[in-house]
Amino acid sequence: MILEQKILNSLDHANDGYYCNFIPLNHPYSYLIDTRLNVFRGDGQWAIAAEILGYNPRGSRIELNIFYYGNCLINLERYNNRDTNYYDAAPIDEDSFSAATTDGLLNPEATTLLVHGAKLALSHNKDDYERAGIGLVEYEPGSISMEEVGRLLITQNQAAFRATDAELYKSIPEHLRKLLVLDHWYHKDFTVGPPKIMSDEDIFRAYELNRGIGGLHGMSVEALTATIRAQERRMGKFEREQWNTDRPSSYETWQQLAKVLQTGDTSHYKPTLAPNTHWSNWPESGSL
Question: Which domain of life is it from (predicted)?
């Protein structure tokens, strides 16, 4: 039996402090381009696969990251001997993307981009972007950045960028049925993880290690302990505030989706909050 409260509790604790995260639309390393939410249900099992399409300037590519949540996940990626809850589905041919970009900007000579095997036409016409509601930043006069390219392409070729069923079911058992697909929903970024309180022994070990390499500049172990405890109190206040206002179980999107998953009845999803997952609502994405 699927229990609504267990689903919400799982989502509330999606951030493990390491490599599992709740759906991060304001990710500082990726300019948001588009989103989709896929909801799956089976006999006593549930799963959610969130697609986040974004441009990562450090990796110099447009990535389709799929974030997984559920009570039956399989084949999760691992990093540093820990599970992660996402992987990069890489929809764009690497050679094609390299040929289309120069230093993060659209190559003036590029005409197409190969996405999931389909050749998509690239536009160099500023009017096309303006009609799509994309105001060009123009880091250089007349230039078009690759996140802007992606934002226009997704309006023209949505199906090409969506995860395939094979990609979605990578970490979801195949017998689960896709129950609901949302391209827009009301969302809050939520970054709180389990609290990390250093023990006195851990602080002392850190003190000894840093003292040995001259990194404490004469600070005593008592002063280091006081500094760390003050920081923990400050962070504890921030985490409590975010927990109260932003955790998934605190607002209707996930409350209603949990009920959909419990019952199998999609009519329980009847949002009253305006959707905000469009990239224009997440200006801090890619900010680093």
Answer: Bacteria
Residues present in the chain in total: 288
Better-scored residue on pLDDT, 223 or 285: 285
Q: Please tell me the distance from the alpha carbon of residue 266 to that of residue 48, in angstroms, as a whole number.
A: 14
Containing 132, the helix (H) or strand (E) segment is: none
Q: From 140, 184, 194, select the one nearest 282 (Cα to Cα).
A: 184
DSSP assignment string, 206-271: HHHHHHHTT-STT--HHHHHHHHHHHHHHHHHHHHHHHHHHSGGGSHHHHHHHHHHHH--GGG---
In the predicted model, what is the mean pLDDT of the chain? 92
pLDDT at 215: 63
Between strands 45-56 and 177-182, the pairing is unpaired
* Rounded distance between C-alpha atoms, residue 64 and residue 59, angstroms: 13
Rounded CA-CA distance 63/79 in Å is 18
- The per-residue pLDDT for 199 is 83
Stated pTM of the model: 0.86
Cα–Cα distance, 70 to 41 (Å, whole number): 10
Whole-angstrom distance, CA of residue 68 vs CA of residue 50: 7
Task: Work out the angle between the directed axes of helices 252-263 and 4-12 (0-180°, nearest 10).
Answer: 140
Instruction: Return the closest-CA partner of residue 39 out of 28, 50, 53.
Output: 50
State pLDDT tens for residues 9-48: 999 999 998 899 999 999 999 999 999 999 999 999 999 9
Round to whole Å and give the CA distance between 69 and 221: 41
Angle at 35 between CA 102 and CA 60, to 5 degrees: 20
**Tens-digit pLDDT profile for residues 115-165:** 999 999 999 999 999 999 999 999 889 999 999 999 999 999 999 999 999
